[in-house]
Amino acid sequence: GAGVSQSPSNKVTEKGKDVELRCDPISGHTALYWYRQSLGQGLEFLIYFQGNSAPDKSGLPSDRFSAERTGGSVSTLTIQRTQQEDSAVYLCASSLDGGGASPDTQYFGPGTRLTVL
Amino acid sequence: QKEVEQNSGPLSVPEGAIASLNCTYSDRGSQSFFWYRQYSGKSPELIMSIYSNGDKEDGRFTAQLNKASQYVSLLIRDSQPSDSATYLCAVPPPNFGNEKLTFGTGTRLTIIP
């Protein structure tokens, strides 16, 4: 079946602009995660959704970052007033349950490469 | 101390040899451990998971876990050029209900033909 999809694949924006990144998880997956991967920082957790709720937002780097998930499916990560340090690859992952007796496999999307000029 | 540590490499291994990748973690309560492979410009893909002390084998891959030493490793036997990638060690929190992964910075592996 279809995997996790993300759009756009690339986004170039000017400093100070707002951007929206979209993630379509695997159908039926209730858990959804956003991560960021930048040079020198590795892959870091941003936010976790279980259904439409976000019980863990601890990785969001500032209040310029927000995310929502609707219908237990599509999620949008919004970055307001972008800064150059926001440049990174933003990865979305989904898993079947996210809270069972043993960890589920997280399947990653192809990512959105964000460049802030 | 970082929560999950890996040698960043690069690690170069001749084709056909065994590649050994290492990872240490700081939370003694950690129960689950994952190895992801990431090709350049691609997203991570899970190749091994391990939950119990000892070895777990899957084809050419063997994961080894030693909870007392807080150490998990990945061995790749009969290394192939297609194994050239960055290998990421990932650990979720010990409590259930949130499986956000903490990743090491990855080890870049190059298999030399």
Topology:
The complex is a heterodimer of chains A (117) and B (113).
Chain A (H helix, E strand, L loop, with lengths): L4 E3 L2 E4 L5 E6 L6 E8 L3 E9 L2 E4 L8 E5 L5 E5 L8 E8 L11 E2 L3 E5 L1
Parallel strand pairs in A: 2-11
Antiparallel strand pairs in A: 1-3, 3-8, 4-5, 4-9, 5-6, 7-8, 9-10, 9-11
Chain B lengths: L3 E3 L4 E4 L4 E7 L7 E6 L6 E6 L3 E5 L2 E6 L4 E6 L8 E7 L10 E2 L3 E6 L1
Parallel strand pairs in B: 2-11
Antiparallel strand pairs in B: 1-3, 3-8, 4-5, 4-9, 6-7, 7-8, 9-10, 9-11
Provide an overview of this structure.
The complex is a heterodimer of chains A (117) and B (113). Chain A is mainly β. Chain A is 0% helix and 50% strand. Chain A has strands at residues 5-7, 10-13, 19-24, 31-38, 42-50, 53-56, 65-69, 75-79, 88-95, 107-108, 112-116. In chain A, strand 7 and strand 8 form a beta hairpin. The radius of gyration of chain A is 14 Å and the shape is globular. The mean pLDDT of chain A is 92. Chain B is mainly beta and 113 residues long. Chain B is built from no helices and eleven strands. In chain B, the strands form two sheets. In chain B, strands 2, 4, 5, 9, 10 and 11 form a six-stranded mixed sheet that branches. In chain B, strand 7 and strand 8 form a beta hairpin. The radius of gyration of chain B is 14 Å and the shape is globular. The chains are: A mainly beta (117), B mainly beta (113). Chain A binds chain B through residues 31, 33, 35, 42-45, 48, 55-56, 59, 91, 95, 98-111, and chain B through 32, 34, 42-46, 49, 51, 88, 92, 96-106.
Number of helices of chain B: 0
Give the percentage of residues in beta strands of chain A: over 45%
**General form of chain A:** globular
The biggest chain-chain interface is: A-B, 27 and 22 residues
What is the average of the pLDDT values of chain B?
92
Q: How many alpha or pi helices of chain A?
A: 0
Largest sheet of chain A: 7 strands, mixed
| Rg calculated over all Cα atoms of chain A | 14 Å
Termini separation of chain B comes to 36 Å
Helix content of chain A: under 10%
Quaternary state reads: heterodimer
What percentage of the residues of chain B does DSSP assign to strands (E)?
over 45%
Structural class of chain B: mainly beta
The end-to-end distance of chain A, rounded to whole angstroms, is 37 Å
Profile the largest sheet of chain B.
6 strands, mixed
Helicity of chain B, as a percent range: under 10%
